[in-house]
Specification:
6 helices; 221 residues
Length: 221
């Protein structure tokens, strides 16, 4: 499994690729009980010091200030750049990519993609999981792409660049899986507000036809 090897792959081969990684790294398919995941992103303290207006706007997207204080630090620190404002006009679609069988579209998870970013990822599927910084608990041979639609003009959301990640397994402080990040993530913090956003109940199936090209990784034996 060479670092720069890109191979045509069937769905079964793609699934087997990730199963091999999970087994080698002792990471269950969907449970976080025996793994931890960190991002090498920006620091929230610096963000709130130098970008108070954007922080206030982001906090205001949550149903209460206490929820904002609880969840916003992880959202900010998931990026290697500080969040900037963006706007969606009425009928504009953004997209959420989840592993096959995932129902995270029904959760408050803030992470979405623009059409431009989604198309760029599809054009280079061997790098998709790495660019998105997906943990081993969220990878699959097949992905489901859901749509969220803006219900008004100038609908505020935020964007940042996905930060590099490190995932740890059962051996303490042993980094087992890294991603460089680099994709642009669209952060819709108020995506549960049905007066502002409409989530699809159907999805597009996307199955990459090449094996992932993992950067800076080798199987742990």
């Amino acid at each position: 499994m060479g670092e720069n090897t890109i191979e045509t792959a069937s769905l079964a081969q793609h699934d087997s690729f990730w199963i091999e990684w999970r087994v080698a790294c002792s990471v269950p398919t969907s449970s976080w009980d025996s793994t931890s995941f960190t991002t090498a992103g920006v620091h929230y303290d610096t963000f709130q010091k130098y970008y108070p207006r954007i922080r206030t706007a982001m906090i205001g997207m949550y149903s209460s200030p206490s929820l904002g204080a609880q969840y916003l630090p992880d959202v900010v620190e998931s990026g290697s750049t500080y969040p900037v404002t963006a706007y969606a006009d009425s009928a504009t679609n953004l997209y959420k990519l989840v592993a096959k069988g995932g129902s995270i579209i029904n959760s408050p998870s803030a992470y979405y993609l623009t059409k431009t970013q989604l198309d760029a990822l599809k054009a280079h599927p061997a790098l998709m999981e790495q660019d998105l910084g997906l943990p081993l608990t969220s990878v699959s041979g097949e992905y489901w792409i859901y749509t969220i639609t803006s219900l008004k003009d100038s609908n505020l959301f935020f964007q940042s660049t996905v930060a590099p990640t490190v995932q740890y397994g059962t051996r303490p402080l042993h980094p087992i899986y890294n991603t460089p990040g680099g994709a642009t993530q669209s952060l819709i913090l108020n995506n549960m507000d049905t007066t502002l956003w409409l989530k699809s109940t159907t999805y597009e199936v996307f199955a990459p036809t090449v094996l992932p090209n993992l950067k800076c990784n080798s199987l742990v034996k």
